[in-house]
């Protein structure tokens, strides 16, 4: 049968997938650590954990995606940075447990596989792994024409790290009097884009919609350039601090903003008091707030507001870390402190960590 149906006629091109493997091979290899044992293209990645380095090693895993920030990348035709976002969302979470990221795997789903475009996406994933010091151990690309439009794609992945059990950071050591140190974000990172896109790219009351290519004076760049700034990877900053300083808690400020992500690491009976004005809020957040008339409480629970990562530590340690990071040219600020929760009415229940929104107050 010369005219019979084929997988390609159904919308899936196996040859394109094989061509992609060849395009990304040289992107992946530079991310390898000495523990990686196999080559790109196998059925599974192999990683030999050196257990001699640990008394009681604990593997820490995290999975995430990029969210609707991908829609901005697709509309702009810029695909080489969202892979950094993907890696950052996962490795920053693993780091929050005090773990060193070891390896990463990605999943790319497309409506139509264009190997050159997919290679651009994976280029970003490889760059994110390079920044985090973890190996891009493998991944999967799926062409699904009935699930996605021809130019649409989705991106997800997961990271695995390792920590000494006795040195895991879980927030249980946080105590009243601890300082809260905030590390600068690179803008929105990868959270709140459904709200940001609705406010910025759609007409809002008497304000016309903005275009992704429109220069915005207060941002110093086009709107699209601002929205595609990649999520910061905090691994190279925070891992050395864990070796030198007493750190009681770490929080990656992602979905849920400052409120939920700081609140989730606090033990019962404690509240985080954040000082408004103790750090500069990047202009993009004020633009969103003003255009959308978004109330302050909503901004604090959706966005990072310029603080992508938070370290909770004794005041002397926090001050020393701030000084060290400043010498490195990093922007960071002591933005608050941990206090005893006087009674439930002042800050939520004392029954556990589930009452996150009521465990963070702004003054």
Task: Walk me through this protein's architecture.
This protein has about 375 residues and is of the alpha+beta class. The chain contains twelve helices and twelve strands. It has helices at about 15-30, 70-75, 80-95, 115-130, 195-200, 225, 235-245, 255-265, 285-290, 295-300, 315-325, 345; strands at about 55-65, 100-110, 135-145, 155-165, 180-185, 215, 220, 250, 270-275, 305-315, 330-340, 360. The strands form three sheets. A six-stranded mixed sheet has the order 8-10-5-11-9-12, sandwiched between helices. The chain has a four-stranded mixed sheet with strand order 1-4-2-3, covered by helices on one side. A two-stranded antiparallel sheet has the order 6-7. Helix 4 links the parallel strand 2 and strand 3 (about 135-145). Helix 3 runs parallel beside helix 4. The termini are far apart. Residues about 345-355 have low confidence and may be disordered.
């Amino acid at each position: 049968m010369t005219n019979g149906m084929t997988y390609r006629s159904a919308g899936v091109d196996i040859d394109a997938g094989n061509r992609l493997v060849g395009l990304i091979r040289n992107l992946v290899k530079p991310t390898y650590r000495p523990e990686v044992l196999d080559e790109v293209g196998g059925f599974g990645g192999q990683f030999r954990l050196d257990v001699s380095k640990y008394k009681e090693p604990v593997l820490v895993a995290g999975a995430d995606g990029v969210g609707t920030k991908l829609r901005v990348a697709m509309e702009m035709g810029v695909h080489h940075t969202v892979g950094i976002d993907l890696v950052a969302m996962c490795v920053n979470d693993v780091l929050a447990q005090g773990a060193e990221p070891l390896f990463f795997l990605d999943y790319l789903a497309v409506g139509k596989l264009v190997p050159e475009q997919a290679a651009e996406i994976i280029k970003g994933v490889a760059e994110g792994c390079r920044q985090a010091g973890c190996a891009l151990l493998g991944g999967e690309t799926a062409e699904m024409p009935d699930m996605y439009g021809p130019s649409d794609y989705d991106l997800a992945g997961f990271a695995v790290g390792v920590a000494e059990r006795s040195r895991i950071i879980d927030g249980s050591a946080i105590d009243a009097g601890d300082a809260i140190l905030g590390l600068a974000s690179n803008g929105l990172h990868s959270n709140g884009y459904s709200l940001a896109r609705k406010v910025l790219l759609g007409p809002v009351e008497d304000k016309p919609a903005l275009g992704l290519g429109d220069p915005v004076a207060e941002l110093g760049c086009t709107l699209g350039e601002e929205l595609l700034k990649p999520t910061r990877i905090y691994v190279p900053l925070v891992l050395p601090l864990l070796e030198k300083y007493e750190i009681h808690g770490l929080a990656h400020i992602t979905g849920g903003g400052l409120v939920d992500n700081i609140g989730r690491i606090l033990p019962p009976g404690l509240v985080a008091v954040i000082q408004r004005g103790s750090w500069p809020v990047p202009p993009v957040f004020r633009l969103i707030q003003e255009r959308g008339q978004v109330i302050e409480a909503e901004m604090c629970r959706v966005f990072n507001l310029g603080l992508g990562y938070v370290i909770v530590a004794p005041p002397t340690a926090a001050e020393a870390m701030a000084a060290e990071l400043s010498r490195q040219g990093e922007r960071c600020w002591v933005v608050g402190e941990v206090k005893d929760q006087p009674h439930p009415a002042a800050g939520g229940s004392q029954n556990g960590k589930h009452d996150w929104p009521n465990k963070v107050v702004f003054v």
